[in-house]
Amino acid sequence: MIIKxxxxxxxxxxxxxxxxxxxxxxxxxxxLHSINxxxxxxxxxxxxxxxxxGMNSRGAFPTVALIFIGLLLAFITARFISTRTAIKKTxxxxxxxxTALFAIVALMPSAxxxxxxxxxxxxxxxxxxxxxxxxxxxxxxxxxWRQCWRRRNVHWxxxxxxxxxxxxxxEFTVKPSLNAHLLSPTLSFSTADWAE
Length: 196
Fold this sequence. Notes:
disordered C terminus; 3 strands; mainly alpha; 196 residues; three-stranded antiparallel beta sheet; elongated
């Protein structure tokens, strides 16, 4: 089950990292433009491409590593909370992703002598953008994981040669093309054969 969740987590990590890096780069370029430095479209694209590689592979703390740790801790906490509350998982994971990026933005200055090293987080608008980027990553991840949870949490019962299956939000029926005595709790049916 955990192995099936890894690709969705990595994609949500890529979403958050991409939005973080491009926002930081755009903020720096806007500042350069405001002091009358020549900023053209070629410079914007080349700087964004360079920063996507450089900010994630160089430096004392690569951006992707910070976001990885933040999202991992937030999603583990969200998973723990989801087993004890009735909050929708998509809402909970979106809040966890936003909280993770907010924590990174809020804690970075305390680690570096109260310096805001993240250019995009020096204003309230920039911080809100980064929190929304984390929320988007958390929402995306929860939607992908939800598909894994649905596949795993399928309950079925055999009634007169017809299998009735229920997931968390739907009920399906399927008439299997195999003998009833071959059915077992570990047998799975493809969703293509299901009829609502």
